[in-house]
Amino acid sequence: MQKLHFAVLMLFCALLVVAGPVFAGNGSYLDTIYQASDDGTANFDDSQCTPGVDCPEDQQCVGEDCAAPTCEGDECKPACEGDDCKPTCEGDECKTTCESGKCPAGQECVDGKCVPTAEAKLKSMLERIENVLNRLITRLMNKLLGINVKIKVVEAKKVVPPEPKPEEPEQPAKPPADPPNQPTEPEKPAEPEKPAEPEKPAEPEKPAEPEPPAANEYRELTNFEEAKKLAKEKDQPIMMVFSGSDWCGWCKKFQAEITSQPAFQNYAKDNMQTFIADFPRTTQQPAELERQNQALMQQYGVTGFPTVLIVDADGKVIKKTGYIEGGAENYVNHLKSIIE
Q: Could you tell me which of 225, 247, 226, 243 has the C-alpha nearest to residue 304?
């Protein structure tokens, strides 16, 4: 990075050294170039020189060199002196007048004279700057590096929006096709529909007759009078179970381990009637069933669940018991000890 900075600094110093003679002198180099351009004598090609810039005013340019003066002594004096050099017109005769719109391109009429417009002045100034920069940089590069470099000043162009195209008129809609010559036949009226025959009322379904329970099947009765009737017919005792099936933990344990097991049911269906007096909290019971169970609980003085009573066919208590651990087979042996 330090080497790059040093190289840039040396290049800048070299430009100052080379450009010093160009800008030396009483007059401005740029002013001289401008004046030569206005006079039409400026040459911006590297193979030509510019009178008054590259050569003295009394010498002409011949290629890259200045020609020697073609006159000597008095011969080099101007063609006229004093009053002889006055213009050929005086006063109002030298005035020129112009009219608006009649000036050449790039000029406008101001106070009766055709003067360059602002755009023309700007364009001329840009061209002069371009020419001066080209010539100055070309000379510097030729002396430093031997490279021809030119700068092109791009003139800003006005963007003219495209003219909108006129919309094409819409074509008129085509007239409808000519109606057919032959008249169409009138439609025949639809035949009236025949009234639907009234449907015969469906015969009411007969209620299905309840299937009688199998003679040798385990049942859990909820009607105590029915349980006493069956017990009298078969001369069997009744096992009354007072339970809270949906809230009592020991009741759920009694049902899962004993009354739902095949060992208990196989014994109970042949030797006794099983009656369940349930007191649920989330299940709604029929009012008659609920009154029956409440009356039985008061009659037998039941205060806890599960409570198991072994009674005879008339409802007389034989034995009061409850849940016993050991499973269904152990409970069957417990019942045998009471009944048999």
A: 243
Instruction: Give 91's DSSP letter.
Output: G
Every domain of the chain and the residues it spans:
12-56+101-155, 220-339
Structure letter (DSSP) for residue 51: B
- Report the C-alpha gap between 53 and 47 in whole angstroms: 14
- pTM value is 0.40
Q: Which fold has domain 220-339?
A: Glutaredoxin (3.40.30)
- The H or E element containing residue 311 is strand 307-311
pLDDT digits (tens, 9 = 90+) for 63-117: 656 666 566 666 655 556 666 665 555 665 555 577 777 788 778 888 778 888 8
| Secondary structure (3-state) at 291 | helix
For 91: left if phi > 0, alpha if psi spans -120 to 50, otherwise beta; the answer is left
Q: What is the 3-state secondary structure of 164-213?
A: CCCCCCCCCCCCCCCCCCCCCCCCCCCCCCCCCCCCCCCCCCCCCCCCCC
Quick one: 306 exposed, middle or buried, by C-beta within 10 A (0-12, 13-18, 19+)?
A: buried
Amino acid at 205: E
* Euclidean distance between CA atoms 23 and 154, whole angstroms: 26
What are the tens digits of pLDDT across the range 185-201?
Answer: 556 656 666 666 656 65
Which residue is associated with the tokens 């819409």? Answer: 170
State whether the Cα torsion 299-300-301-302 is positive or negative.
negative
The CA-based diameter of the chain, rounded to the nearest angstrom, is 178
CA pair distance 301, 295, nearest whole angstrom: 10
Instruction: Report the candidate in 335, 337, 338 with the shortest Cα–Cα distance to residue 267.
Output: 335
Residues 6+ apart with CB under 8 A from 304: none
Which strand (E) or helix (H) includes residue 248?
Answer: none
